[in-house]
Design a protein that fits this description.
single chain, 11 helices, about 15% strand, disordered C terminus
């Protein structure tokens, strides 16, 4: 089922009787890029995806803060009458998911943070060098800019090992281009993000994932993030770059499903021992 609320285009996939998981996108691309990853999650979960304002199929002006973007995520859940959901966020989407967890803890069943950091400036030297390449992408027309950005996010190992798949992903991204102002707003949101002092307030079961080939952010930021959240689990996805859902969709989905199952099983146990 597809719909829109406040200009935000969303899609509700899978069995409505299953536990819901909301997927939050990184900078660039649309919900169409969830592809195989979302399909694998649908085997056990109700999968909800959306395009942020100003991107993909959504209208309106893009948000320039992770707090505002988290508000849009809540609006999607409200439109679908979902009181509590599991959240998966990657890169900028992970920052938005963190902000959601801090601002709306009662709406969160569990949290999966992939290829992200508690502070937007947590980029390694290699990542800063690549940022200049991203800026050059924005000098192109929107369709070519989307294609360029996606190819730069994919690790050079993945592009070398799977050139046809990399091109297919880039072509898919180019089908729903976003205005340049959206990229700028989302880049500002990422750079302004800093929740290091508030990580200790996150109490939901949390899994932090990173790729061992992430040359944009590096796995160290994820490790530090997991250390700052009480009880958070930390895992590396091997042979994957920054976007785990594009380079290793099957393994990433398997990790997420196992974690969600574990989190769900823990809830009755905690209620019986604490309540």
């Amino acid at each position: 089922m597809k719909g829109a609320t406040r200009g935000i285009a969303w899609e509700d996939r899978g069995d409505a009787h299953r536990p819901p998981i909301l997927l939050i996108r990184p900078l660039g691309g649309s919900a169409s890029l969830w592809g195989e990853f979302a399909g694998a999650l649908e085997r056990e979960l109700r999968v909800v995806t959306f395009d942020a304002l100003g991107s993909g199929m959504s209208s309106g002006r893009a948000r320039a803060s992770t707090a505002a973007l988290a508000g849009d995520a809540r609006a999607v859940l409200d439109a679908l009458n979902i009181e509590k959901a599991h959240l998966f966020g990657i890169s900028l989407g992970g920052m938005v998911a963190m902000r959601f967890a801090i601002d709306s803890p009662s709406r969160l069943a569990s949290l999966v943070l992939a290829s992200t950091a508690a502070r937007g400036f947590a980029f390694e030297q290699a990542g800063l060098r690549r940022a200049s390449g991203f800026a050059r992408c924005l000098a192109r027309e929107p369709c070519e800019a989307e294609r360029c950005l996606v190819l730069r996010v994919l690790s050079h190992e993945f592009r070398a090992e799977h050139p046809a798949e990399a091109q297919r992903i880039a072509d898919l991204a180019a089908q729903t281009p976003s205005p340049h102002l959206t990229f700028v707003a989302h880049a500002i949101a990422a750079l302004r993000h800093d929740v290091r002092a508030q990580l200790g307030t996150i109490r939901a079961p949390t899994l932090v994932l990173a790729g061992d080939r992430d040359h944009l952010l590096g796995p160290g930021a994820g490790r530090a993030l997991a250390h700052g959240i009480a009880g958070a689990k930390w895992a590396i996805i091997t042979d994957s770059g920054h976007d785990l859902t594009l380079e290793r969709p099957g393994e990433t989905a398997t990790r997420v499903l196992a974690f969600v199952r574990e989190a769900r099983e823990a809830v009755p146990f905690l209620r019986s021992h604490i309540g």
